[in-house]
Amino acid sequence: MNFLSPLLLAGLIAMVLPLIIHLINRKEPQIKAFPAIEFLRRAYQKNAKKIKLKQFLLILVRTLIIAFLVFALARPYYQKQSTTQLEVGSFKADSAVIVIDQSYQMAFDLLSAPDQELTLLTHSKNQALALLDEHQHPMALVIAGAEIKTPVSEISADFASLRESISKLKVEPITANLEMAILEGIDLLKKRPSTEKRQLLVFSTPAQAQRLEDRFKDQLEEINLLFVDSRDLLDQPEKGFTNRAVGNVLLTPSPQRGNHQWKLEATVWNWSDLAVKQLPIWVEVGGEIKVKSLIDIPAQSQSTQRFYFQVDDLAKQSKIEGTVKIAEDQLKLDNQVAFMIEPQKKINVLAINGDPRPTPQEDELFFFEKAISAKASLGEHFRLTIKNGDDLENEALDLKEYDVIVIANMAKPSIGLGQMLEKFVMKGGGILLTLGERVEIERWNQAFASFLPKPLRERKIAGDASQAIGERKLAYFEKYKETHPLFSFLKYAFGNLTLSSLGNSKIKEYVLFEPVMDDQSKTLIELSEGMPILVEKNIGQGQVILYASSLDLTWGDLCLQPDFVPLIQNILKTLTQQSQNQQMLQTYYGKSIQLEINASQAFYLINPLKEKTPLSTNQKVDKTQRLGFYFVEDANGQNLAKFQVVLDSSQGRLDTIKANQDQNTQPGSNEGKSSKLAQLAPRKELWHISLLLIFALLMGETYLMYQKLRAK
Prior knowledge:
CATH architecture of the largest domain: 3-Layer(aba) Sandwich
Oligomer: single chain
CATH superfamily of the largest domain: Class I glutamine amidotransferase (GATase) domain
Strand order of the largest sheet: 18-17-19-20-26-25-24-22
Structural class: alpha/beta
């Protein structure tokens, strides 16, 4: 017998209260000899034993009432220890493999009691250990975690090693590849003699059981595949394993609502056959609840909740962590997702206009200036200074106060300007180069030779050269380097970059590059004609991006596309290495992530425990072994990139079989090649029996009190 609330058994101490009260009220009689009533004393002695017996029974009844009341509150239950877990019908295995799932879904609490927890993994471990004690057949263990592990390399009677391995199992924040674990178990069983009765026993969630039962039912050769079903352990088995989980969280500034305002959109999953109404959800920042709400979620679906909140003390800190939370259910691991708020630094931009015009719409930088204006960027994130390229030689330039230099359609840059820009980018500055009809290619190759991503060759009119210019087919953006942080805003919005409005832009003319081999130069966007149109190159500690066409309407209409605005803004952020600092990349626990870091010196990975390790030169983090925020810094402590390791809450479905379905008989099973759901021994609660006994004892006490009063 076990208890759902064992701590309440401390109330059994109250059983001594009736005895203490009896002893306190008991008075020792004073003995005085009185011959006249001697005959009465002798008569009383005859009934003394009956009176003491009634008093004893009364104390016992009151003590038992307290005991059974405590038992009822502690919710006792009985569960038969299964001795047939390796059986299907009358079949018994000669050899077996136990597969235990370590996925985060196995942290589901079967009891839902406030003062006691029994996770699905803990119960699976208990059942597996009981099997080792009850069945002295050769066995093996396969662990489905971040990696597929077999503590014992073959099926054997090494029960001590199996017990030790099972006892150490803990939930891992991943969704394990259970299919690979089952295949590993099948391989182990196939090494046993075919004359043996072989069994593969799998402990996982019902959703995994149904999916993999269908997957393997026709592929087994004389191996019995058995999935353990634990629905009967639930308080309400008819509802199955229900779960609600917080999914993606998108945090963006919201300056249009006021200073220090932020917008947060959170996705919440409902892995249940019943819709959820008014589920509490709230946002915490720095341990303080900023905003609360209620969310409705359809059955087996998701909903998105939008929040607006203000963070006033952000300027005092480099970053603040927050959390989106929902009301806890029986799987607590996916009831919250963390996020991070960082202050946005203003980017100082110096734009050198090579083709200024009196008519604003014809000016080279007209659309560029509009794209980074406070209205377009929803806040003053850029501080723009524009200088005339023709007057630049007569003006002393101090580039120290700028983060990005933009050279737009400048005709004849000087060698001196090129040297200044080279020093600027070597020290960590960013340069954006754009071309146009005024550009003299040879002069550019001379002045900017040290930092041009690719040498310029010649101007090209898009389309087939054999056709007249008016009849030629214009070029358009076709291929993107999607892993580059420059396109993170489009990838989130559209999923596929080809769906963005950038692909609608028509390019009439552009500049070709010399076909030179340069490992440092990367093509970010390629035209439909197969030619690069946007390229980048890391120079020293800085970066240069070259757009091979014009920013105005002379050579194309990119500036008229809606996504031109975020493209230009992200180019500037990329050149100042803020795009990765502000864009929080995400990956799942145990997965690898490829970073794009614009730095040539050594850099280090800092995990959520603040441990610093050198990052490989390929900028790839192979395995993420802890949930939380990771940062990449250079030797000077400058933040180069960051990413977050989260749970894959989209895999939070625990149960897919309807409650009214017969779970003991699954379609497709047959003799010799079978897979079934094994029902664990059901839990029988006994608290109602305690209440019946209390009622009976109260009736008994009433009768004893009646006899006592009648005697008086």
